[in-house]
Amino acid sequence: RAIIVLMHSPRRMLLCLVAVFLAVLAGIAPAAGQVKHYTVSISGIGDKALVEAVRNVSQLDEHKDQAALSLRALRLRTDAALERVETLLRSRGYYGSTITYDILRPDSSDREIALKIDTGPPYMLAAYDIVSTTPGEPRNPIDVPYETLGIDTSVAVQADQIIAADSRLLASLARQTYPLARILERKTTVDHASRSVRVSVSLDMGAAARFGATSLDGLSSVEPVVLERAQSWKQGAPFDAGELEKTRTKLRESGLFSSVLISHADAVDVNGELPVTIKVEERKHRSIGAGGSFSTTEGLLAKAFWTHRNLFGEGERLRIDAELGEIRQGLFGNFRKPDFIVNNQDAVIDARFAQEQPDGFTSLETAVVGRLERRFGAFYTGSAGVGLERSLVDENGNEEDFSFLVLPLSLRHDTSDDVLDPGKGQRATLAFTPNIGILDTDTDFYTTRLYDAVYLPLAEKKELILAGWLRLGTIVGEDTADIPANKRLYGGGPGSVRGYALNSIGPLDSQNDPIGGRSLTEFGTEIRWRAFESVGLVAFVEAGGVYDGSVPDFGKDLQWGGGVGARYLTAIGPVRLDIAMPLNRRNDVDDAFQILISLGQAF
Predict the structure, then answer these.
(1) C-alpha distances in angstroms, 120 versus 44, 82, 90, 94, 192?
(2) For residue 141, what are the β-bridge partners?
(3) What confidence tens digit (pLDDT) does each residue in 536-552 have?
(4) What is the pTM of this model?
C-alpha cells in the first residue's frame, strides 16, 4: 500500500530517495578528524618471516594511502584483516593465538594501527586418520605410511602439509589399483588441552581397477609402434598410476613430442578394466644449430649440426655434426635406433672423419663403430660394440698408417639433474676398449678409463653448488712409443686441467711438445655461485699428471691449476668464461694464463 501511495506522489518519492541517499552518504563520508594516512605496526612475533606473512595477508598496508576513512570504517577494515590473520596463524599450527589491536592517535590525521599478536605454542599433528566409507561397505581404516604422505608428526601442523597429503594419498591409492578414489570429507579436530590436531579423511575408494584397452591420439608421422613400445603396462594387469608416469617420461625423453597426456576413463567397464588414452602432439622432427668455443690454447672452434629425430617413422635419430677449428676439423655422424629388438636397448652407429693438428703430432682418422646400448633401471647404461678405425699419424716427421679392430665396452651411472648445468647427482663412466691391430698393424693394446663427477647442492635453487671430478686412465699391452700418438693419454686444456695448454701436462720432447703417456690421473673441484638471476660465478682448483708407465704415479709430478670464471645462464645452458692459471708454472713451457669460452659447464 505504501508503494502505491509513493507511485501516486512523485514529491514524496523524491524526498524518500534523497533521504536514503543522505543516509548512505552519512555512513561512508569521513567524519571530523579524517584519516588520510595511517601506519601499521606488529608486535609480539619474533619470526621475521611470519611478521612479513601477517603484514601481507592483513592487506592493511595496501590501502593506507588511499582516500580518507572514518574511524568506524578503519575499525571495520582492521576487524576484517584480523580474520585473515587468524586464518593464517591457524594454517601455521597456531590454534591458540590471540590477536588484539589499538588505533593510536585516533584524533590525528596520522593514525597507527597497532596489532598485538600472541601466537601461543604451535600445535602438533597427532594423527592423520584415513577411513574408507564406500557406500554399502563397512568403514575400514586404511594404512598409508606417513612418509608416503609427506607428514611429519614431530613438527607443528601445517595446512599446506595436510593439503599436500590429500593429493599424495590419492596418488598412492592410484598406484595400488584404486585410481577412482576420491576424498569425501576432511575433518580437523583441535584438542586445546593437549595442543594437538587430529585430521580424519573419509574416502570413497571406488572400484579396484585393471588396465583396459589403450587408445592412441595425435599421431601424424610417428608410427603407433613407438607408443606401443613405450607403454609399460599390459591390458588386464592391476592398475598402477606409476606406470602411466613411467610411459609419459619415456615418450617425453624420446624428443618426438612437444606434449604427452595420458588419461584414464572415469569408470571401469563391465570387466573391471579402465580404458586409457595416450594423446600426443608431435614436434618438428628436423632441427639445425650452430655454436662454437674459444680458448687461448685451441683458438676458435666453430660447430654446426643437423638432426632428424624420426628418420623412418619409428623414432630413429640421425645427427650430423661438423667442426672447423685451428686444431681440429671433422665430420661426425650418429645414428640411433631406439628399442632395438627389445625395449630399453638401442642400436647405435657412430662414424667420423677427422683431422687433428695439436702440438706433437698430426692425424687423419676414419672410423665406424656400431654398438648396442642398454639401460638398466633409471640410472645405469651399459654398451658393447665393435668397430674399425684407420688413421694416418705424423709424429716428428715420421708418418705411419694404423688400422684397428676396436671392441668398446662401457658402463655409465648418471643421477645428475641437468645435461648442461647439473646441480646435484653424480656421473660416472667406466670404459674398456681393446684395440686389435689388423692389416699391416701388429700393435695390440687395451685402454681403460674411469671418469666420475659429483654435484653437491649447498643451497636451494642451485644458488651454491660444490662440484668435483676425477679422471683415471691406463693403457696396457705396448710401450708408449709403439702406441699411435693419437691413441695415447694426454692432460691439460679446456676439458682437463684448465690452467695449461692442450695436451701439455706430462712428458715433453726436446721441443717441449707433448709426448703423451700410458697412464693418467686428473682431479678438480669447483664452487659455483649464482650471484644474480642470470649470472653465476665460479672458482676452481685442478691438478693432473700423465706418466710413461701403465700405472699412474699418484701424487707425483702433478701440475696444479686454478682460476675463476663467470656464467651467463640461458635456457639452453650457461655460456662459460674461464680464466685459469698454472699454479706451478714450468719455465718456457706454460703460459701465464688461459682463457676459455664455451657453452655448458666445464664438467
Answers:
(1) 10, 16, 11, 7, 11
(2) 131
(3) 999 999 999 999 999 98
(4) 0.77
